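pinned: reference chain
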Amino acid sequence: MVVSPHYLASAAGARILERGGNAFDAAVAISGTLAVVYPHMTGLGGDAFWLTYSAADRRVRAYNGSGRSGYAVRRDCYAGEAAIPRRGVRSAITVPGMADSWEAVQREYGRLTLAEVLEPAIGYCTGGFPLSPDQHGGSVLAGAALSAEAAAIYLPGGRVPAAGSRFVQRQLGRTLMTLAAGGRDAFYKGKIAEEISEYMRKAGGYLTKEDFADHQGNWEEPLAADYHGLTVYQVPPNSQGFTALMALNILERYNFAEIGHGSYEYYHLLVEALKLSFRDRDRVLTDPAFSRIPLERLLDKGYAAELAASISLRQALAYDSEPVGRDTAYAAVVDSEGNAVSFIQSLYFEFGSGAVAGETGILLQNRGSFFSLDPQHVNTLEPHKRSFHTLMPAMACRDGKPVYLYGTQGGEGQPQTQTLLLTRMLHYGMDPQTAVNEPRFVWGRTWGEPTQELRVENRVADHVLAGLSAAGHLVRTAGSYDGIMGHAHAIAVDGNGYLSGGTDPRCDGAAIGW
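pinned: its structure tokens
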């Protein structure tokens, strides 16, 4: 079973499985294809986080494929500025980590070569593909933020290309061929790194060849929490994944058998549990190499009981969080042997920094723009540091085997939608597609809005919306299947190994199983 936000990426993963690859090969093929066919959401210039399950080892592992800021990137680079620019080459201050993660996952568990699994992505670069409606919409939204080099690729002839038109990325295709032939070292220590760093030097950026040469992602033990017979896994910080585990620990205090799905109580409790986890997240989340993050306290069941006791069933907590994120691509795959991969990747904003590095065709991410210039802030900018990261794939196991793989795009919306998906599948018996299709909410300023609104789709009952408003939630209704809710996908595995998948109708994805 394969799920992803673009049907061509899902098909690429299925093709690799049919050719004898395993879930790890297929995941890299999906990731590479998404980097081509969903360029406004993700790309070779961005980061990726992975949760892997090896059926042979019966073990879940995490890979942190996020990049660090350059050695020369300091707060005084932005002296006199209130914040790091959101766009342009001076926002591209962290090394892209995705290419490294591809080789790491494949080298550890894959069966095919990197060249074999990148073949679909390269083919869609050089031969073209039908431009998706979502890319068209992203181009309308962010086209003005593109550099001249980027606009020449993504706005050919100075216009937003029509949905369905053939879209070709020959420069990126050449870069992917170089990577396929030379592996990660071609990206971080060879021609690709040289070209990106030379572009940076000429354009006033800060990343250097040394920054690329020293990059290394890392395998880590995932974080885990027990929840109603499941062990739920998340990648550790600098990811915000622990917030979803905190929310589940809080919700474990409530009896969902007595809480109707879609009721006022259902939505209110989820929102309040998530707010409490965000409050702690905002205090502590950054690169753990620079600041201690008290995970043993945050994930303690006793602490969760204290937080649950603070929730009022009739009054919303007043809490103001920061805007944290934009566009992302989540995908998952399970093979016939029981291997499973849940992964997510991003450029941060749509089209990232908006800057393409020279002739590489690589859009550089602007993830580093989320660093703070306040020296007292926990996520303050420092050299060779990973930023607070929104990316967080999820996996839930029972008796040591995966039963749910799930995730979504959407910054602060990621732990919110993940909590919706898991509670719907586990407590209410929904299949993945139904769980994805049911009405969703997103709280906060995940898309940069000035107020802490609770956006709720208008398919939620009027009396529920009225109850949420009466409790003090700043409710704003959104349209049916509104894109602001993100693009969610999930795979469920029953006790007999039967697979079911769901992909979001808000995107251009597909669930493919056989």
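why pinned: The first strand starts at residue 2 and ends at 4. The radius of gyration is 21 Å.
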